[in-house]
Specification:
alpha/beta; 9 helices; binds zinc ion
Length: about 220
């Protein structure tokens, strides 16, 4: 109801074609869904169906990985507006896109997010990754649990590539026991993958029976 009223006062423009109506019109939504990412989220070699190649699957022990698309155009705008302008509808549509990408998960899967740096949460007034993960959990009828926490508050942007990996290992901690449940880890953007990988390790060491990851957008290689 409130959405309808707001829609009347300030109608949405499609993030893709700018047509007035929905946050993302059917055509632009379908364009994203049918444009399979097709690459391994870790090493960017071709990987159809699931976005993880055989070597990386073996190396990391992750049961499933999905990426909605490359971080460009529509996805870039959606991620940016959700994160920096708190556009709730942008988060909602991204959770829906991700939900459509991800295969059926075990019914007892716990959904969690890569935790945001405290300073960023204060600046933005909310934790964008947590909101995405909560929305995804709701769409899939799964439980969201805040499993991970930030131990160090250094932004990854401030670090060079090699240093990112080292920093990522010490940056996170496990907040609560997982008790042999499958875990779906969600983040909005993946760049080098060091952060995600560090979080995956923690979840595996913390007793997750399986780990899955879901990412909205992969930063293109330079
Ligand atoms: Zn459109
Ligand atoms: Zn790979």
């Amino acid at each position: 109801m409130i959405d309808k009223i707001l829609g009347f006062v300030a109608p949405h423009r499609c993030y893709g074609c700018t047509e007035i109506g929905a946050v993302l019109c059917h055509g632009c939504y379908d364009d994203i869904i049918t444009d399979d990412f097709g690459c391994c989220v870790w090493c960017m070699t071709p990987a159809p169906d699931m976005n993880q190649c055989r070597e990386c699957t073996k190396k990391l022990g992750i049961t499933g990985a999905w990426v909605v698309g490359e971080r460009s155009e529509v996805l870039k705008r959606l991620v940016g507006d959700h994160k920096y302008l708190s556009v709730r509808e942008a988060g909602g549509i991204m959770a829906q896109l991700l939900s459509e990408r991800v295969a059926v998960l075990p019914a007892d899967t716990v959904v969690c997010a890569v935790p945001t740096i405290n300073q960023h949460i204060r600046q933005r007034g909310f934790d964008h990754a947590e909101i995405l993960a909560r929305m995804f959990a709701r769409q899939r009828n799964l439980t969201y649990v805040s499993l991970l926490e930030r131990k160090t508050q250094l932004s990854q942007h401030q670090l060079k590539r090699a240093a990112r990996q080292r920093a990522a290992r010490d940056a996170f901690g496990l907040k609560s026991p997982i008790n042999n449940k499958p875990v779906m880890l969600i983040d909005d953007i993946v760049t080098t993958g060091a952060t995600l990988e560090a979080c995956v390790r923690l979840l595996q060491d913390g007793g997750a029976s399986q780990v899955y990851i879901g990412v909205i957008a992969r930063q293109p290689l330079e």
